[in-house]
Every structure is written in structure tokens, then in C-alpha cells.
């Protein structure tokens, strides 16, 4: 058994560190207001929308990342990607998370960037959606969750019905000619990451079957200027970069057959087959963040003295660090094992969920221990710990809550 990191992961990490130093760090210095103590106030306007200057920084990094070959790294070569496997991507993600808050999260595009779900695009859709996305010219969003259904998203209320064609001018100006058939989407989505800025959304709607059926859900590619589609309230969230989550409204939103991704009625099952990679990335990200917080805390515990001794010499402190270091190593091996199984084409539902579950717990535990070890200093905004404390919480909720991961693990067992 070889536990060393694959050489490709080591090389990419090194290249990314150089890229961050040369291309990203100067922007972090120039736009310090988007990273400093008052970052939230500077990033959004009074309507909670991200300000143009912030959007431009993100776009600049995205374009530089495309040029350097990091963007769309996990996508296949045939669409211009790097064909990097799940394990390599996750290990690189772990190293990227092991650093102070910065703009590096824009390097891969996050929820707005390329996703293997779009490999279901036909030739024309590849040209219209996937290629510009791979080139960093446009962004997307994944619109599944609704006000009434999150964990049970397949019970969705959003529907799409087939209808006679309206004139093409009522649809997006760039929409291609269709064969006369259109679909009319009605419904609402919530908490959609990158929803306010996406050039097109991957929207899931029921097209046939009964409430709760996994089949009978279709994925539509809806462009931002499509009549009947509107961005609603921009949510105010707890700890993530503000201004990125929104409600999306579909009110008699007409789209053409050419905007169906993959097969009619198969959108949900197709999208779910890709979700495991996302769970592993969250676990890897948690390990990187936890390692960053542990290293910071160890250093502090060595230096900070109370009652004439470094606090790290007290078991009350050192045992917290020992526990955290053990949890980090456990979760690291767990996500790497899950990724290795996936890359080998083995069923890994249980392991993906275990990694996501433990990763989400770890991110929260690490922020809590780091704050405790740092005492009052950890609670203040001068250090990044309080930000980590707030941003870690969502890991237990999105991409499947803790309880849904346990449900999946139990189902695989029983
Ligand atoms: C910051 C953020 C970004 C997001 N981005 C996106 C996005 O880009 N696209 C998108 O589509 N969605 C997105 N989501 C939505 C996210 O996926 C859902 O919030 C999540 O799946 C949970 O759904 P819910 O909020 O409706 O909670 P619910 O499903 O209502 O769950 C409420 C509680 O009940 C528990 N529960 C539910 N069912 C069971 C069960 N069977 N057994 C035990 N416990 C159960 C849950 O674990 C939870 O504790 C985002 C959410 C957040 C917070």
C-alpha cells in the first residue's frame, strides 16, 4: 500500500502555489478591502449584490486560471479540461484550503464553474454553453433546491409542461431555432449559489411521473435573459462570501427543446450520479482548513504563556490539539480512500458520505478548538478564526446534510 500523494497532485499543487504567488497575491494586496476585517461591507451593495469591482477581481482570476490550465481541471481533455482524477483534485483542494482567506477559491470557479453534469450537452449545447464556460467567459449555477423541498429535492414543485411554440423573439436573443416545441417552466428555487450572476442556470423541473419519482425530472439550461426567469431575493448568509446565494423565479418561463440537458425525464438521476465528487471535495477542503487552524493553534500554544508556562504544556490545551490532529488524519485517509474507490470505478456511496460527514464535523471542530486555544484573540476579527467558525457551519448543511449522509450510510449497510 502506497500512502504517498500521487506525483501529479504534488506537481499541480506546486504549480498552483506559484500561480497564487505571481497572479493572485498581487490582487489580494491591491484589493485588501475584500479580505480584511470588514470584507462583508465592501463586497456587497445595499441590495446585497456583489459590487462590480469585486466581480471584476473574480473574473480576472478566472481568466488567468483558464490561461494557466487550472480551470476545468477535472473535465475531460475532449472538452479542453485537464482530465485530472477525483483523488488528485481532492488532494490539490486540500492544499488550497490550507491557507489564510484569499481569492484562491476563484481559481476553480466553485459552483459557477465547469461541472461534469454538462458533459451531457449535445454538440450545439457544447458550443453555446460548455465551451464558453470552459473558457471562463460565462458562469453557471445548479438550481435544484426549492422553498418546500431540499433534502427531498425529487419531490419538487417546479414543473415544466410542453406547449406550442411562441415566437422565438420571446425567448433569449441567442436561442437557436427550434423545431416548434417549447417547454414552459413554473416554480421557484432557493439558496442557489452564483444564482445572481450566472449566465445560464441548470434548472430541474418535473416533466412527468408522480410526486417523489426519481425519474420524470428534466434539467433545462435557462439563460439569464430568458423571459419568465428572474433572480429574486439575494440571501444574506452566515459566513460565506456574501451576495452569492439567491432565489430564482420561473413564471411561464418558455424554453426550447434545444435547452434540455441530456434526456427528458432523466435529469435528476444523471445529475445525482456526479454528486459524489462534490462531497469528497468538501471533505478534502475541510481537512485543509482544519490543518491550517491546527498549525496556527500549535504555534500559538508554543508561544502563549500563562502562569509562567506555555499553554501548550498544559494537557487541557495539548489534548485538544492531539484530538484534532487525530481527526484530521482520520478524515484525510477517509476521503482519499473514497476518492480512490471512485477513480477505480468501484461503488463508493458509503465512503463518500462518510468522508463528507466526518469532513463537515471536522471543519466545525477545528474552528471551535482554534478559537478556544486562542482565547479572546480567537474571537476577534483581527484573526481569521471567527470567519472560519462561521463559514464552516454550512458544511453540515449543503451537498446533503449530516443526517442525509447518515441515511445514505445506513441504507448501504442495511
Ligand atoms: C450556503 C448554501 C448554498 C447552497 N447552494 C445550493 C445550490 O447552489 N443549489 C441548490 O440546489 N441548493 C443549494 N443549497 C441548498 C442545500 O442543498 C439544502 O439547504 C440542503 O440540501 C438541505 O435542504 P433544506 O435546507 O431544505 O433542509 P430540509 O431538507 O428541510 O432539512 C431540515 C432538517 O431536517 C433534516 N432531515 C430532512 N430529511 C431527513 C430525514 N429523512 N432523516 C433525518 N433528518 C432529515 C435535515 O438533515 C435538516 O437537519 C445551498 C444551501 C446553502 C445553505
From TrEMBL:
Its cofactor is FAD. GO terms for molecular function: acyl-CoA dehydrogenase activity; flavin adenine dinucleotide binding. Residues 141-253 form the Acyl-CoA oxidase/dehydrogenase middle domain. Residues 8-137 form the Acyl-CoA dehydrogenase/oxidase N-terminal domain. Residues 149-171 have a biased composition (Basic and acidic residues). Keywords: FAD, Flavoprotein, Oxidoreductase. The keyword Chaperone does not apply. Residues 149-180 are annotated as: Disordered. Residues 265-413 form the Acyl-CoA dehydrogenase/oxidase C-terminal domain. Its EC number is 1.3.8.-. CDD domains: ACAD (cd00567). Belongs to the acyl-CoA dehydrogenase family. This is Acyl-CoA dehydrogenase. It comes from Natrialba magadii (strain ATCC 43099 / DSM 3394 / CCM 3739 / CIP 104546 / IAM 13178 / JCM 8861 / NBRC 102185 / NCIMB 2190 / MS3).
Amino acid at each position: 500500500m502506497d500512502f504517498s500523494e500521487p506525483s501529479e497532485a504534488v506537481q499541480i499543487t506546486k504549480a498552483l502555489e506559484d500561480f497564487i504567488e505571481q497572479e493572485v497575491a498581487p490582487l489580494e494586496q491591491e484589493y485588501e478591502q475584500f479580505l480584511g476585517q470588514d470584507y462583508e461591507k465592501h463586497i456587497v451593495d445595499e441590495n446585497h449584490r456583489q459590487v462590480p469591482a469585486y466581480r471584476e477581481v473574480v473574473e480576472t482570476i478566472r481568466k488567468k486560471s483558464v490561461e494557466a490550465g487550472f480551470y476545468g481541471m477535472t473535465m475531460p481533455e475532449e472538452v479542453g479540461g485537464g482530465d485530472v482524477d477525483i483523488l488528485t483534485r481532492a488532494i490539490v483542494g486540500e492544499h488550497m484550503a490550507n491557507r489564510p482567506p484569499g481569492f484562491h477559491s476563484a481559481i476553480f470557479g466553485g459552483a459557477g464553474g465547469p461541472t461534469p453534469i454538462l458533459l451531457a450537452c449535445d454538440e450545439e449545447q457544447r458550443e453555446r454553453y460548455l465551451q464558453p464556460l470552459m473558457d471562463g467567459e460565462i458562469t453557471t449555477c445548479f438550481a435544484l433546491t426549492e422553498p418546500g423541498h431540499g433534502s427531498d429535492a425529487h419531490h419538487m414543485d417546479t414543473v415544466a409542461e410542453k406547449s406550442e411554440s411562441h415566437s422565438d423573439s420571446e425567448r433569449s436573443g441567442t436561442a437557436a431555432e427550434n423545431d416548434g416545441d417549447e417547454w414552459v417552466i413554473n416554480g421557484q428555487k432557493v439558496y442557489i449559489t452564483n444564482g445572481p450572476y450566472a449566465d445560464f442556470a441548470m434548472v430541474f423541473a418535473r416533466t412527468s411521473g408522480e410526486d417523489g419519482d426519481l425519474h420524470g425530472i428534466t434539467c433545462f439550461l435557462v439563460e439569464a435573459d430568458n423571459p419568465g426567469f428572474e433572480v429574486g431575493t439575494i440571501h444574506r448568509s452566515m459566513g460565506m462570501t456574501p451576495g452569492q446565494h439567491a432565489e430564482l423565479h420561473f413564471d411561464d418561463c418558455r424554453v426550447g427543446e434545444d435547452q434540455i440537458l441530456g434526456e427528458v425525464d432523466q435529469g435528476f438521476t444523471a445529475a445525482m450520479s456526479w454528486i459524489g465528487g462534490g462531497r469528497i471535495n468538501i471533505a478534502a477542503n475541510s481537512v485543509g482548513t482544519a490543518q491550517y487552524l491546527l498549525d496556527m493553534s500549535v504555534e500559538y500554544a508554543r508561544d502563549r504563556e500563562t502562569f509562567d508556562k506555555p499553554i501548550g504544556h498544559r494537557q487541557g490545551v495539548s489534548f485538544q490539539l492531539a484530538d484534532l490532529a487525530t481527526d484530521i488524519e482520520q478524515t484525510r485517509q477517509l476521503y482519499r480512500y473514497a476518492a480512490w474507490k471512485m477513480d477505480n470505478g468501484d461503488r463508493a456511496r458509503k465512503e463518500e458520505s462518510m468522508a463528507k460527514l466526518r469532513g463537515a464535523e471536522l471543519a466545525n471542530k477545528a474552528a471551535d478548538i482554534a478559537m478556544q486555544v486562542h482565547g479572546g484573540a480567537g474571537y476577534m476579527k483581527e484573526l481569521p478564526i471567527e470567519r472560519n467558525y462561521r463559514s464552516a457551519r454550512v458544511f453540515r448543511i449543503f451537498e446533503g446534510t449530516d443526517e442525509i449522509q447518515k441515511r445514505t450510510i445506513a441504507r448501504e449497510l442495511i
